[in-house]
């Protein structure tokens, strides 16, 4: 079983891969990265759960060792859907609302001028039946933490989902109206790519 059927190139993948080794490369043209943020608080019914797409990223997977190096541009986050009462309603927010949310995320929460890249480098990738167990380091908002993720087959794609706790990376979750509307500290990130 091979992890990665994307565009294969000869590339030096950090210290885990020699120059000339075959590497599968993924980006927004053949893969997807989504972030899901969830509301809470006394007035949470007035807010929305959010689905956000990362529009610029690059993931490289070595065909032999399965070593992974990934880079994500936090400035490229774009709101895709709002979920009032658990329903997908993309028309719920105006373009002005969408832009305000984007500006708040990149400017106030992620502070992308100071921290313009999110980066993941694997330290161990283990194959088990039809999945992979991945351990590595995630650098987000200037903080580096160990990350564990499972990559599963789902139809014709590989899918990984992780829950990131914003405070672990020095990020203060969104709060409004004296905390009566809040975004939960944990956001879910889903990455999928073709097999």
Task: Present the secondary structure layout.
Layout: E1 7-10, E2 22-27, E3 32-37, E4 39-40, E5 49-54, E6 57-62, E7 68-72, E8 77-83, H1 95-109, E9 118-128, E10 131-140, E11 143-154, E12 157-165, E13 175-176, E14 181-183, E15 186-194
Antiparallel strand pairs: 1-2, 2-6, 3-5, 3-15, 4-14, 5-8, 6-7, 7-9, 9-10, 10-11, 11-12, 12-15, 13-14
The level of helicity is: under 10%
Strand count, sense and barrel status of the largest sheet are: 12 strands, antiparallel
CATH topology term: Lipocalin
CATH class bucket: Mainly Beta
Q: What's the N-to-C terminus distance?
A: 10 Å
Query: What is the 3D shape?
Result: globular
Give the C-alpha Rg. 18 Å
CATH superfamily: Lipid/polyisoprenoid-binding, YceI-like
Output mean pLDDT. Answer: 80
User: Which stretches of 5+ consecutive residues score pLDDT under 50?
Assistant: 5-20, 41-46
Biggest sheet strand line-up: 1-2-6-7-9-10-11-12-15-3-5-8
Order of helices and strands: EEEEEEEEHEEEEEEE
Q: Per CATH, which architecture?
A: Beta Barrel
Structural class: mainly beta
Q: Please give the count of helices.
A: 1
Strand content: over 45%
Top keywords for this entry?
single chain, 195 residues, mainly beta, Lipocalin, 12-stranded antiparallel beta sheet, 1 helix, 15 strands, globular
Explain what this protein looks like in three dimensions.
The protein is mainly beta and 195 residues long. The chain has one domain: Lipid/polyisoprenoid-binding, YceI-like (Lipocalin, Beta Barrel), CATH 2.40.128. Helices cover 8% and strands 50% of the residues. It has one helix and 15 strands, in the order E-E-E-E-E-E-E-E-H-E-E-E-E-E-E-E. The protein has one helix spanning 95-109, and strands at residues 7-10, 22-27, 32-37, 39-40, 49-54, 57-62, 68-72, 77-83, 118-128, 131-140, 143-154, 157-165, 175-176, 181-183, 186-194. The strands form two sheets. It has a twelve-stranded antiparallel beta sheet, with helices on one face. A three-stranded antiparallel beta sheet has the order 4-14-13, with no helix packed on it. A hairpin with a 5-residue loop joins strand 6 (57-62) and strand 7. The radius of gyration is 18 Å and the shape is globular. The termini are close together. Mean pLDDT is 80; it is low at 5-20 and 41-46.
